[in-house]
């Protein structure tokens, strides 16, 4: 079978998705790419030999030698670009979050249905080994019926990754409860088998807002904008984005439509970088210790006790041969998209779930910016939801 020819929009931090997808002779290859940034175009040229590189996304979307489109641009551009590609009849991969507001999400889903063009959203954490392991444990009934979920997200490199470019601006992301938390809200929904219907949140810009070391408008990021071992403690960060108006810490309470209660906490100035999930059912609980290779998910379910470090069962997080890209999730994500773009059918990722994670994040952001007042999360139109739940057919 010939390679699926991919057009790429955007070659920034998620350019890794395009590189993962580029497998000449093995299923897919990048044939065209557009980015406004000259440096990004220069880096893309050797990564994709022979690909047509341009500044205009329309040259990619309209290219007859492009079979499907990857939208990897900043968040606030996702919806419009996705709709253009869908209208052009090209299956679309949209990096999460689907959009930065609820109406735009719904417009993308309606466009996919009206055109009959396949839509896929890149919620790669559904393919992460630790998430699959937790879901398997829940499905086996080891903790009974899920009743509450607590998620703590320690974003150790938050200053590097989210406060030195467009991620730090509300106009581009709305807030990090969309940009960053969309992953975890989606996973939380998947593990609980329900969607958020009410949120209440608090948050603040506690650390990076007071840092005066900003780049001048239009000045590019420094070459050492990210280092694995440096930039600690957080106040030593330099070259931050000229505008910073998103929160660097947030706390969200959620009530799901199936009665599950959940909590999500995110902090961008911790020394460590990982996610901790605690899922409690009516017959036990599980918790992950580490979220990548070498980590474990532990289960307590045999008896009541005081503090007990030793679990009743421990499951090691599987290690894939290709563990790059979120513990090996990115290659699996691309495998699923390529198959879906060619053949259609059901996928582990879900446009409906992607919309609901954005909806929960939007309403939570509204809550934390209005003193923590509760907000209702609007459901997706039932007929539109049914279309996607059938695998985008009928």
Automatic annotation (TrEMBL):
Ranges of residues in domain Gfo/Idh/MocA-like oxidoreductase N-terminal: 5-123
Pfam families named in the record: GFO_IDH_MocA, GFO_IDH_MocA_C
Gene3D superfamilies: Dihydrodipicolinate Reductase, domain 2, NAD(P)-binding Rossmann-like Domain
Ranges of residues in domain Gfo/Idh/MocA-like oxidoreductase C-terminal: 136-372
Family of this protein: Belongs to the Gfo/Idh/MocA family.
Designated name of the protein: Gfo/Idh/MocA family oxidoreductase
Natural source organism: Streptomyces zaomyceticus
Lineage: Bacteria, Bacillati, Actinomycetota, Actinomycetes, Kitasatosporales
């Amino acid at each position: 079978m010939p390679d699926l020819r991919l057009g790429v929009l955007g070659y920034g931090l998620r350019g890794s998705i395009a590189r993962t997808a580029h497998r000449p002779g093995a299923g897919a290859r990048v044939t065209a790419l557009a980015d406004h940034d000259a440096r990004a175009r220069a880096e893309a040229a050797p990564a994709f030999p022979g690909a047509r590189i341009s500044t205009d996304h329309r040259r990619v979307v309209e290219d007859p030698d492009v079979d499907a489109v990857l939208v990897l641009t900043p968040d606030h551009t996702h919806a419009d670009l996705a709709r253009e590609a869908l209208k052009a009849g090209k299956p679309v991969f949209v990096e999460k979050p689907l959009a930065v507001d609820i109406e735009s999400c719904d417009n993308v889903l309606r466009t996919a249905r009206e055109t009959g063009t396949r839509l896929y959203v890149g919620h790669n954490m559904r393919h992460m080994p630790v998430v699959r392991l937790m879901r398997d444990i829940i499905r086996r009934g080891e903790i009974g019926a899920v009743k509450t979920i607590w998620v703590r997200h320690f974003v150790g490199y938050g200053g590097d990754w989210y406060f030195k470019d467009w991620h730090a601006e509300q106009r581009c992301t709305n807030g990090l409860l969309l940009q960053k938390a969309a992953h975890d809200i989606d996973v939380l929904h998947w593990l609980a088998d329900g969607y958020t219907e009410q949120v209440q949140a608090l948050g603040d810009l506690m650390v990076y807002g007071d840092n005066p070391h900003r780049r001048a408008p239009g000045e590019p990021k420094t070459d050492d904008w990210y280092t694995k071992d440096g930039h600690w403690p957080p106040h030593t960060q330099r070259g931050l984005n000229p505008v910073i108006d998103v929160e660097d810490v947030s706390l969200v309470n959620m009530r799901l439509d199936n009665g599950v209660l959940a909590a999500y906490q995110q902090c961008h100035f911790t020394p460590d970088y990982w996610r901790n999930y605690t899922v409690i059912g009516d017959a036990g609980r599980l918790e992950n210790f580490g979220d990548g290779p070498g980590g474990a998910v532990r289960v307590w379910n045999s008896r009541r006790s005081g503090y007990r470090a030793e679990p009743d069962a421990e499951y090691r997080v599987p290690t894939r041969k290709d563990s790059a890209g979120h513990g090996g999730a990115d290659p699996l994500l691309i495998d699923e998209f390529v198959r879906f773009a060619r053949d259609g059918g059901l996928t582990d990722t879900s446009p409906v779930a992607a919309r609901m994670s954005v909806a929960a994040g939007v309403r939570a952001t509204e809550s934390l910016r209005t003193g923590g007042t509760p907000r209702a999360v609007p459901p997706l139109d039932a007929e539109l939801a049914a279309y996607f739940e059938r695998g985008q057919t009928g």
